[in-house]
Design brief:
By secondary structure, this protein is of the alpha/beta class. The protein has a single domain, classed as Spore Coat Polysaccharide Biosynthesis Protein SpsA, Chain A, CATH 3.90.550. 33% of the residues lie in helices and 23% in strands. The chain has six helices and ten strands. The strands form four sheets. The protein has a four-stranded mixed β-sheet. The chain has a two-stranded antiparallel sheet with strand order 1-2. It has a two-stranded parallel sheet with strand order 3-4. A hairpin with a 2-residue loop joins strand 7 and strand 8. The radius of gyration is 19 Å and the shape is globular.
């Protein structure tokens, strides 16, 4: 979906929600948007966010997130910014995450002296693979009742935190011992389709009505 990061969500650019969340976290010294798109750049500047101009070569569908992160950090180092200990990755496609969740992720990685952390969400679905049209559950002893199953955890795409030294050295956010923080289900909406936009708009309206 082209330019989905600035598509209106309840009257505001999608990016604005993540900017607000970042501003609510005292531990974040600097919030930066990395983009190659002039329209996204303009919206970010209107929101008062610093922009790193991402090379087009790092903005293809196959470009890893880590490459853009390393470019942004290298650019900041040439602009007389002090060295950062951690980088926090907040995809604009998670407009329902809270500043409290971001804070908790940062606090968790520091308290546990971990190298990298990702947000995960719980699922009790019966997960499996298809083998020539036959379902092969990963857990063959799972109870039939959903509420009786032990949960699996899946990547929520809401928050990533990583030591800058690890990212710059390895080019990856992944570690062998990848610390995890369980993000509440209601914050884990990840927008990729028009249906996701509609769901997020509904949830935001419901949240406002109950406040």
């Amino acid at each position: 979906m082209p330019r989905k990061n600035i598509r209106p969500l309840n009257g505001r650019p999608l990016l604005a929600y993540t900017v607000d969340q970042a501003r609510g976290v005292a531990e974040l010294d600097l919030t930066v948007v990395s983009t190659e798109d002039p329209e996204i750049r303009a919206v970010a500047l209107e929101l008062g966010v610093r922009v790193i101009d991402r090379p087009v070569a790092l903005a293809t569908d196959s470009s890893p997130t880590e490459a853009a992160l390393r470019h942004a950090l290298e650019t900041l180092s040439t602009q007389e910014e002090p060295a950062f200990d951690y980088v926090v990755v907040l995809e604009p496609t998670s407009p329902l995450r809270s500043s409290a969740t971001i804070h908790n992720c940062v606090q968790t990685i520091v308290d546990r002296s971990a190298v990298s952390l990702l947000g995960v969400r719980e699922t009790r679905e019966n997960i499996g693979t298809l083998d020539h049209g036959f379902f092969r559950p990963l857990r063959t002893d799972a109870p039939r009742r959903r509420q009786d199953r032990k949960p699996f955890y899946i990547e929520s795409s809401t928050v990533y935190v990583c030591r800058v030294e690890h990212l710059m050295t390895t080019g990856s956010l992944v570690t062998e011992d990848w610390c995890a923080y369980v993000v509440p289900d209601h914050e884990s909406v990840d927008i990729n389709t028009l249906e996701d936009f509609a769901l997020a708009e509904c949830l935001i309206r419901m949240r406002k009505e109950t406040q």
